[in-house]
Design brief:
Chain lengths: ~230, ~240
Amino acid sequence: MNDILTGMAEALRLILTLDPTLIEISLRSLEVTVSATIIASLISLPLGAWLAINRFRARRFVIAFLNALMGLPPVVVGLLVYVLLSRSGPLGVLGLLFTTSAMIIAQVIIITPIIASISHQAIRELWADYHDLLISLNTTRWQRIKALLWDGRRALLTASLAGFGRAIGEVGAIMIVGGNIDHATRVLTTAIALETGKGNFALALALGFILIALAVVVNLALHLLSKTERSSLW
Amino acid sequence: MVAPILPLRAENIRVARGGKTLLGPLSLEIAGDGVTIVLGPNGSGKTTLLRALHGLERLRDGEVHWAVPEPETRKLQAFVFQAPILMRRNVVDSIAYPLLLDRMNRGEARDRATDAAEAVGLGGRLSLAAADLSGGEKQKLAIARALVRRPQVLFLDEPCANLDGKSTREIEAILIEARASGTRIVMSTHNVGQARRLADDAVFLFEGKRIDGGPADEFFSNPKTPEARAHLQGDLVP
């Protein structure tokens, strides 16, 4: 209990004094996670819509596979990305290992199935409502996807935020591919792991509180910006 | 000048689902102008017929022919569903949507949508979410969205079902206006009074087959089949 109170006090001190190290790793956390969320959303949202409106032989299998990938172990993803990006690996020539780019790649792999599955579910329900209308209006496949993505944007924001939530708290994969290098790849979660290892529980908890606060602030800001709770049912 | 898509000819069409024939075999021609009313008891195939003519049903047999090739007819016909399908948009953007599909610029589309909304009495509701409209207003929105592309043929599937007298009267006025401006209307209804008020000709369906119909005066004054006679008199159809 004492550690928790000390951690909260330490968190407050770090925030009020605008501790430069805290600012640096928080910004890096945001940079990596927001980049990964945007890239994963650009892949997953159209994929979710496409899966919702298309009928093909392996569709059920693809959806089941996507759902299964939601539970992808981050450490395994980290290991795979490490092998791919390591100097002797097939993508070693890019020199991305132990950079924030490698961390973004790992996070994209982890959260793409999450965003795609949730968005597929949301769009499937909207497609059931819109099906006859969009067919009647003689829309092209792309026009259907566009209408579903636009009209389902609030549910899709939730899907993206679920991905963001998973990514910002992720530690296993980015520790492996980022290396937790000070002033280069250290982010809040890897810093927490490091401080815990060193026995600095108060500092680790302080960073943990800041991490939670950051996730809450980003979620609230996006919900407010997108007026999620204002427009009638939607 | 847009080529006329009528006459519409349905030749021996049949719609089946799960091994059960829902409609047909049935042949029908729709030409000229006016209002064709499709009548019949529940399950007689009214909705299926309209959907089949509009291309929303897979035909097991037969064909539907328009005067011009099928792809060109699509934007010149519209469908209003019994339960209005509302987009998650406000009134003006919902009505403008079909115009945006035709690559009309957003400003012009919104101007035309505003005119269409005003024409159906939704001028004061432009920025309201479609879901917040009353039942009658929702159906008016669906009709405005269908009419905004100025279709040559408008299919309506029981557009006044579950609406009160005032909303029904308002919707009938909109349809009479659309007919006057040259839109050919094909509409199903349960309401015999409404059928009498609007119809230029009628199609009577029973168990998926067209068993009666013809010019409105003739059909309503002298139906040829006992089923149609019973239906028009408000009796239970055998």
